[in-house]
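Technical annex, item 7. During the second reporting period the consortium partners agreed on a shared format for inverse folding records so that results from different sites could be compared directly. Each record opens with the tokenized structure and is followed by the designed sequence. A conforming record, contributed by the partner at site C, is shown below for reference.
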């Protein structure tokens, strides 16, 4: 694998297979790509679950000692191996020193988030002063919306995608209700064209152009959770701001997955969780960003002690000296145990760059796409043949690592059969299977094994569906 290449994955796969004297579908190619992978050592930084430990596994269908194929990093990332040691360090500090842990040790509890914020800054492409690590995603979104959404008689709408993640949808609804606005009139939801699954950038830009004068805030995903579509963040930001809108993004499925340049793109605000591609554990410490251009003009609506300037915070005079920018939005002292888990993961990211990770990711997901299309494309001449449809955009600049799959066989049966065989992936209602090969810890051989197992899972699922239809 040429790590400096941005060629289309198909070209790289076919050229490399030709050099090896094999077919692109052969296992030999997967093993070669893994051998040449400059990031292969990072897999050793994570605990990869064994198939025998996954509750849905059927022991008769797997080799107990094998590692599972973990393609669920878009839902919950794997545990970095250093997490336990870092947690133990702080538990030991607490046990030995009590209150003195607040300002001593390598992660002083009162400053724990600030100890790791620079590591996060590189991942999202922002200045460290533009980022705060705090709360959960939805809490941060509410705090930001309270300041950025100030409706007027002429500018009162919020634009979001129709199938936004439920927490974003509910947050927008409740913000509108808080201002006693008509949700149906003020919640502007953009739908894909009839017969299509993803949004066209030109349609997003068109609605901004047509409705922008009445839109107060544009809130979109960076990567759409259901389809895996990567939105054109810089173009959408520019278009929205030219119409006088604030533009923000929920980056839950983008951070740690794709390259981001929030500061250079001029994004007004953003928020993200850290337990998907950032591997900080369920409910991990979230992140929030506000561009420095707003430091003197955008203030928090709700204020807590931790938003007070550090140098006078502990004088306890109750005379607010608000920290400029996003750090003025902090409410409480950082939860040090959550900081530890995130610290362990961000250190792994620190061993490489998002550019290098993205390069591998493009080829890894491209390999998965190639094999799916090779084995499971629809055959009009053979309607009995099971097929798989990829609804994620084929353009590499319009997706991250996730592919969302629709099946001709009922999805619930396919998902169950995959789980029996030690595959960790993610089903989303009504009929999508989301698979996400993550470049930090997934291999090309994982992809090859997945495709092999998928074949037997589909056969069993089809038989189960036929039996159910006859009963």
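Designed sequence (site C submission):
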């Amino acid at each position: 694998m040429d790590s400096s290449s941005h060629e289309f994955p198909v070209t790289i796969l076919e050229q490399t297979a030709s050099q090896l004297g094999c077919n692109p579908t052969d296992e030999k190619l997967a093993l070669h790509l893994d051998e040449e992978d400059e990031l292969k050592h990072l897999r050793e930084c994570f605990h990869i679950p064994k198939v025998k430990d996954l509750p849905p596994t059927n022991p008769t269908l797997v080799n107990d000692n094998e590692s599972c194929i973990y393609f669920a990093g878009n839902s919950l990332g794997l545990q970095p191996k250093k997490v336990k040691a870092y947690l133990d360090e702080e538990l030991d500090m607490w046990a030995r020193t009590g209150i003195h842990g607040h300002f001593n040790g390598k992660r002083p509890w009162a400053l724990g988030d600030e100890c790791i914020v620079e590591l996060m800054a590189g991942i999202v492409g922002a200045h460290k002063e533009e980022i705060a690590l705090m709360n959960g995603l939805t809490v941060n979104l509410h705090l930001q919306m309270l300041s950025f959404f100030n409706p007027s008689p002429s500018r009162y709408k919020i634009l979001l995608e129709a199938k936004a993640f439920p927490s974003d949808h509910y947050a927008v609804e409740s913000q509108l209700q808080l201002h006693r606005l008509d949700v149906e009139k003020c919640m502007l939801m953009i739908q894909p064209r009839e017969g299509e699954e993803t949004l066209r950038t030109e349609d997003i830009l068109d609605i901004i152009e047509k409705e922008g004068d009445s839109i107060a805030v544009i809130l979109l995903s960076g990567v759409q959770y259901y389809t895996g579509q990567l939105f054109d963040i810089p173009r959408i930001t520019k278009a929205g701001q030219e119409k006088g809108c604030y533009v923000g993004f929920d980056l839950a499925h983008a951070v740690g997955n794709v390259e981001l340049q929030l500061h250079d793109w001029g994004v007004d605000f953003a928020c993200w969780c850290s337990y998907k591609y950032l591997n900080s554990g369920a409910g991990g410490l979230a992140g929030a960003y506000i561009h420095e251009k707003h430091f003197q003009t955008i203030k928090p609506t709700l204020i807590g002690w931790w938003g007070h300037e550090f140098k006078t915070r502990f004088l306890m005079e109750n005379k607010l000296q608000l920290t400029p920018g996003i750090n003025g939005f902090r409410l409480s002292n950082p939860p040090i145990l959550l900081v530890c888990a995130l610290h362990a993961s961000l250190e792994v990211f620190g061993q490489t760059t998002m550019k290098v990770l993205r390069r591998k990711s493009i080829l890894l997901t491209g390999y998965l796409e190639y094999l799916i299309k090779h084995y499971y494309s629809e055959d009009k001449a053979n309607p009995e043949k099971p097929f798989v449809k990829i609804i994620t955009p084929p353009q590499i600049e319009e997706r991250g690592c996730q592919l969302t799959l629709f099946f001709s066989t009922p999805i619930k049966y396919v998902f169950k059969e995959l789980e029996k065989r030690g595959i960790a992936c993610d089903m989303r209602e009504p009929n999508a299977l989301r698979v996400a090969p993550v470049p930090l810890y997934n291999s090309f051989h994982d992809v090859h094994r997945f495709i092999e197992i998928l074949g037997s899972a589909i056969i069993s699922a089809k038989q189960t569906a036929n039996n159910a239809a006859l009963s």
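The CA atoms of residues 372 and 451 lie 7 Å apart. The first strand starts at residue 69 and ends at 70. All partners now use this format for quarterly exchanges.
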